[in-house]
Design a protein that fits this description.
This protein is an all-alpha fold. It folds into 2 domains: 40 residues, no CATH class; 60 residues, no CATH class. Helices cover 38% and strands 0% of the residues. It contains 5 helices and no strands. The radius of gyration is 15 Å and the shape is globular.
């Protein structure tokens, strides 16, 4: 989505493996609805590294006792990486998605290097 928003129209992107696989890849070159909504409603798009996603997953597990997939941990990851500017007042972070391979989750929470790190 970020590449499409930057270009001003849907573009083809190369897809990579990621802990946040639900957020990777293209939006479809004929995408009108999602692209238009994002263009009109988003203030910003924050990009995260695999190691930052891992930190978000670990924090969710260790501090909140929640199992979340990479995409579900992006809010925590962005905060931990200090990529959310100008936080003032109350803040809510939505944790969503438990669709993570249990063995992969264990490797991440045990501190192994992010499996898809660039």
């Amino acid at each position: 989505m970020k590449a499409s928003l930057d270009a001003g129209h849907p573009v083809q992107v190369k897809e990579y493996e990621s802990l946040a696989d639900a957020l990777c890849g293209g939006i479809g070159l004929n995408n009108k609805l999602t692209f238009t909504m994002c263009r009109e409603l988003l203030d910003d798009v924050i990009l995260l590294r695999e190691s930052e996603l891992s930190a978000g997953i670990r924090y969710a597990h260790e501090q909140e006792h929640e199992v979340v997939e990479g995409a579900g941990a992006t809010g925590i990851a962005a905060l931990l990486a200090r990529k959310v500017p100008n936080i003032q007042g109350p803040l809510v972070v939505v944790l969503s998605g438990r669709n993570v391979d249990p063995l992969l989750h264990r490797r991440v929470i045990e501190g192994e290097r992010a499996p898809f790190e660039e």
